[in-house]
Amino acid sequence: MHRRVKIGIIGAIIIIIGVSAFYLASPLFISTEIDEPLPEGAEVPAPPPSNQIQEFMAMSEEERIEAGNQMDEQEKNQIMLEFARMNTSIDESMAQINQSLLEQQTSQTGNETSDLLLTGSFVGVGDGIHDAEGIAKVIPIEGGGDVLRLEDLVVTNGPDLYVYLSTDKSASDFMNLGRLKANIGNQNYPIPVGTDLSKYDTVLIWCKAFSVLFGSADLKSQ
How many domains does the chain have? Predict the structure, then answer.
């Protein structure tokens, strides 16, 4: 009788120890996962720009270029990294092209357009700070002129980013199409009529203040 009681007690202890060990060890073997979105309408505010960035952006374009020439690489990278956290976006349709500018261009040199659609894919520098992806297209406009359209563009943000049509990736000879409207999204840039697109066949996203390439696309006929 006593032997059975002892065996029963020992068995119960073993069961308790086993169950306890399972629950204690289970976090090591049983994982759970969750991907819970923010509540609707909630936004995580971006950190405000530092005093250095505010002072830099308050300068004129010429002053920023001069300041950039005085900075070392560490100071430039610090500014680049802070800009990279501040995204802007745009979704510009073809109908939103500045027709008055196109009409002004065509009135100067006639109704010249490129005969072929030119296109290329952006390739970023890929150094962890300067990156770009998306598609560049040169599209003829009915009535004259061409437009450079950037589609699905995603480029690391930076100070004084411009869109160039260039002969190479170092911007040794280029045409400035204007300041980049946003670092994310679809956007259009009228091309001056008469531009030799067999010569200026590379699209650059270029930081004017620091003379740094962010991304490029080689234009080829389709």
Answer: 1
